[in-house]
Amino acid sequence: MPLKEAYVVPHPPLLVEAVGKESVKDVPGSFSGIKNIAERIAAIKPQTIVLTSPHAPYLYDRFFVDASDRVSGSFARFGAPHSTLEVKVDTAFVEKLRHEAKAEGIALSPAVSELDHGTLVPLSFISEAYSDFTLVRIGLSEKSKDDHVRLGKLIRRLLDQTVEPSVFIASGDLSHYLKSEGPYGYREEGQVFDDEIVDIVQSKRLERLLDIPSELIDRAGQCGYPSLLILHGVLGDDLVDADMLAYENTFGVGYLTARLALS
Questions:
Q1: What's the CATH code of the domain at 247?
Q2: Half-sphere exposure (CA, 13 Å, Cβ side) for 191?
Q3: Rounded distance, CA 80 to CA 93, Å?
């Protein structure tokens, strides 16, 4: 099976030592969890990494897909201009995805955009351990829950047609309203939402994502839920193990790190 594993990762820039410096010590579970994921990916040696990010171009009625040959970015806006990354794009897979999406009525918008921090954070860890991969970067959308799941199913089908191994990464933070002293303040719905997401992943019942009320999702102030919907479409009924590597809310934002294994 070309798709070997899937992962849920948070993306606070402070996890990158050049940005967070001493703050990295305040999120040890997230830091060690992403390092663990990077090591697993290095062992798998995937040709393609498909990654969904809330901070790639976010469109109302379609999904962004990176149409570059190579794409780069830096942590300049986070105070680390010399921390940069450039990766190759899997242009063949992107072209096939565009073609099949059009046939299925899934609206994609190919465009060129520098790497966002939702992509840069996990790839910074991965690139230290393994760099011989190509990237497929996908943005999220205001489209329906079902549309996100449909896109995930299409991604999985196309990955299953490839010969070389691949992995999928759902980048996203959970609630931003977990502590009154945090940057966004506190809402009681925040921890309710995060607890539900953690339970869904631990129980390997990703279909329950579709049952979370829209009001709770909105009040939680999250950015990772649509990535999880695409993940659900990618994994379908093949999820057999969920390794919860970390959940932390040190700074008032929920950071979930998990490895998901397939049958």
A1: 3.40.830.10
A2: 11
A3: 32
